[in-house]
Queue: 3 jobs
Job 1
Amino acid sequence: MLKDCLEIFEKEYKSLGNRLITDSYVLSYGTYILVKNFSNIDILEVSKNNVDSTEDIYHKFCELDYLSKLVSIDKSVDSKKIIHSNNYLSFFVKKENLRPDKNNNVKLTEEIIDNYYDALLNPRIKYKSDKRKKEIYDSIENKYGKVDENKLNKIRLWIKTNIFDLVESVKKDKNYLKIFFDEKIELYNDENQKYLYPNIYNKNDFNVIIDGKNYGLPNDNMQLNEKKPFLKLKTRIRNSTPYLISDDEVLLQKAFFDYLMNKAANGEEVVYISSEKGIHRKTDIPNEFSGYILRIKKGKELEIHDFDTVVNLNTKIKRINVECIIPIEYERHNLKPNLEIGYINNLIKLEKTIDTIFFNKFMCNSYFKEIKNINLSDLVLRDILIRHREGLYTWFYKGRDNIVKQTFSNYSMGIIENSIKNNNYIRAKEQYNLRIAIINYFHGGSNMADKIKVISESLFEKINSIKTKCIQSDEEYYFAVGQLASYFISKNKSKNKNHSLINPILNAQNRKKIMLEIEKLFKKYNYDISYDNNRRFKNLYSMIVGYEVEEKKVNRDLLIGGYLYYSLIYTKSEENENE
């Protein structure tokens, strides 16, 4: 898969070159200095509150910084690892290493500076103990030429003369001071290549020559040393490394990982790559996308947390019809709707709707967070999110809904029950309406909106009847139980209705337990109910007590539907307006 991605990336990289990387490059916090003609300097301070990436100078520093950074600290030009740049045209050092410590010692010394430039003037000295690196450098120097000794020494002198004064005139923090000398970008690129080739492989001990070409183990996303023998490929006799690639391939792979690192630094967590449709973010992914998805994260180096294939990902979906099955009186509660009634035919819109209605806008921001960093105060909702976010991610990012299709009905009901228990009554109604729409989308079958309409009309007629009638089905029974529970709780005299009083009924596993809880509520509130003069209550209560369910399993859908539906007992009928 990585090879396929590299081939796709290579097409764009050949067209744009390093601009593909530097146009979206993010400078780390610190002080950037451009030295012109060894006399004038331009300074750019980059901090949390001072980042203007539109400035020309910012873009110039991006280009120079990218070509001057180390592959890793372990592969520093400076043997003391105090100076962190890779060529004589730039000089990177932490500001704290330029100032005296508590013992009045300064880590950066003139000796370290001289050793840095000596190593760049004659890298063979640095590589004398590594025959392969020396051979690689000899080859690359023949291509790009020797270092300009005169220019190097002029820069060396300028650094030694000015570096310790400069640190006193710039922002005092622990970030980098990065100094660049104003030379052509081509020269920076040549010097960067001379550093990269000997250092880009994980370890040159693993390099082999095949048909005159050098092959080795890439440094990106792979660590192989004697402390990690489990990464070695034991079946290969001559070389036990997991995979080997050529010089051209390793440079391309580095550029690809640098490109991904930029995206991660810019807050992008997912990248889509397709041979037909190129490289995309989630927000601009074309319809019917087939290719690869990479989930990335910025750490000390780029981390790839998921690498998978995507087949025919459609952002357009079969229409989901969100209906107002449970009427909601927003104006009465002085609230605005969060759930839009109508059709949803776009996967991105559906994701945002589920995020808002079910997860209080925590879902989209929590797909990839460490559990400890999900700051959702509702612990029940947090637990549901943590357990089911992988399935939701797979649906919305990869187009595979099989996990959600199997689990959504159960955990969405748990979310609704939790909302009721937390007195989020209006939110519970919105969740119920959206839940039914999504279940119909997945499974089809009978329309819950029509079912509740028929049941509510039938039940309304029965509770208004002069003669007590009978409940005709389990579905009607559970809807009626929800209605009765809602009526009892409406008798609670507290200022804010405590909907958690329905918890025992919601937790009941059979009819017997339900009836015990109904009797408790009746005993609690019967002082406020005129049994003889309240025909609707009398009929409803009598029908519920007199019905025996056929199915053992409690129909929680209709029980909660009845509870959330407007009260039929309080609704006036045309025949009994004066009741």
Job 2
Amino acid sequence: DVADAYRRRNHDAIVTEIDRLIGQGVGYIYFIDEIFLPQKALLEALVDRDVKFGVQTRIDLWKPELLELLGAAGCVSIEAGLESLTVEGRAMLAKRCRLGTEELAALLVNARRHVPFVQANLIGVIEDDPALVDHWRKHLIDRGVWANEPVPLYPYPSSPSYRELWGEPDDLAWERAHEHYLASFRTFSDIQEKRPRALAELEATCCSH
């Protein structure tokens, strides 16, 4: 695995890229598919540049003073991978998060004071207490932070959740993971109306033509 540790990109390389984009007329940058780490030097450099940006990050990595600087630097959108609103859920997802739910919620609300749009991305796991999740979702939404209905965790073959359930993947890994996914949850997303179909059903439809 290559995504099990944070690797900070070179500061000068990032600033050079940003300046090149600004020189080409770019006014908005989205730091996609990376965990935007709290880097004071980078944020201070962005304060002096005429550019807005959005980030994906983990809110537990931030301090209140750096969230304020993040807003001053031009950040207009935060997608925070909170993943779960319960201690049990975060443990299941192996997030190694040292903060409690109340502390995480406070950081999200603090971020919203400085950044126009803040979203807590939630993943649903069997260990979650639905009532507790609903309580914290309402708490966040009432304070201007968008928190989606938890999207069920799909135990992709070779992912930590798959290995915890079944060990190393084999030739039936996808079928096993998909069957478990469908059996574990009744709903899947607040933007997904239809229930996913079983792989065997999809394969039969595909192969019949």
Job 3
Amino acid sequence: MRIIAGTLKGRRLTPPTWAGLRPTSDRLRETLFNVLGTRVQGARVLDACAGTGAVGIEAISRGAAHVTFVDTDRRAAGLVRHNLDACGVGGGYTIRVGNVVTVLPELGEAAFDLVFLDPPYDAGTVAPMLEAAACCLRPGGLVVLERATRAAPEIPGSLTRTRDLRSGDSSLTFLAPAAPDGSGRVPGAGAEEN
């Protein structure tokens, strides 16, 4: 695992030493950040179910103003800190240990421009996580869910799917706040690409 672009380009990240953690692949992370483009610069980002912290550290490398890392596993939080230290990142981040659904309300409304959720593929329903993420979005914010391609997510009414990108067994689902008129439609919603 390595940082793909930005000020930390080429830095290697330490992978987990225990089973059960599935880091976002370099290829999928590159696809994600190619789609996001300059949207990351100056953004407040949430890397939820952070694991190694690769997505959040990539965001820092590409100019994010602040990244909050959240994971339920203390070992993962320690690994995130280790990877940040190894990359020489001295600030501009917060690490929280806890369940995304309970931690996000503590962070306040309108806290993030970008939310990346990468729960375990066997986590069951992700709707509560998506709902919590939607409540913490700034105007114009975006939620990206990494999920198993085989499992279509249950999307809460507060969000509308705008795009799906598939890469083998993994997919990225892009979600925006539902239209304020209650239609639930966002221009371009439902597009799917490979």
